[in-house]
Amino acid sequence: MREGFTVIDEVSIASEFDSLYEVENLIEKVCNDFGAEENYGNVLIAVTEAVNNAIIHGNRKDKDLLVQVSFADSSQQYCFVVLDSGQGFDFNNLPDPTAPENIEKENGRGIFLMKNLADEVEFSDYGRRVTVYFSK
């Protein structure tokens, strides 16, 4: 996360899909409290995609490993930070989900969706930390 952001709220969830409701509650609260209701759909999809990736690919559905989700605010933007306990991944070499050879695949669109729904997506800590930015 860049300088100038203040962490406002955060949750830590077990790496299981039943815990997603806690992230959804955080997103709903934040969008209501910070006047971002018009972005709710984009925020919900982008952030839950990041959390799904953390659960599946990062923590490999190990219920003993946590996924941390933080919400931070600045004067121009707000963001969600998703952190997993995995090994990370090469975020610079992702297959293009719109390429003809990938178009029929069931997986591989999460990061593509995140990048198209948010204003910016930033990876750090070898891909273990994903920050999803939205403009106010």
In short:
By secondary structure, this protein is of the alpha+beta class. It has helices at residues 20-33, 40-58, 110-117; strands spanning 6-14, 66-73, 77-83, 120-124, 129-135.
How would you sum up the major sheet?
5 strands, antiparallel
Mean pLDDT: 93
Integer tally of domains: 1
Please give the CATH architecture: 2-Layer Sandwich
Tell me the fraction of residues in β-strands, as a range.
25-35%
Number of strands: 5
Which class best fits the helix and strand makeup?
alpha+beta
- What is the count of DSSP helices, taking H or I runs of 4+ residues? 3
Q: How would you write the strand order of the largest sheet?
A: 1-2-3-5-4
CATH superfamily placement: Histidine kinase-like ATPase, C-terminal domain
Gyration radius (Cα, Å) is: 14 Å
Rounded to the nearest angstrom, the distance between the terminal CA atoms is 16 Å
Report on this structure.
This protein is of the alpha+beta class and 136 residues long. It has a single domain, classed as 2-Layer Sandwich (Heat Shock Protein 90), CATH 3.30.565. The chain has three helices and five strands, in the order E-H-H-E-E-H-E-E. Strands 1-2-3-5-4 form a five-stranded antiparallel beta sheet, covered by helices on one side. Strand 4 and strand 5 form a beta hairpin.
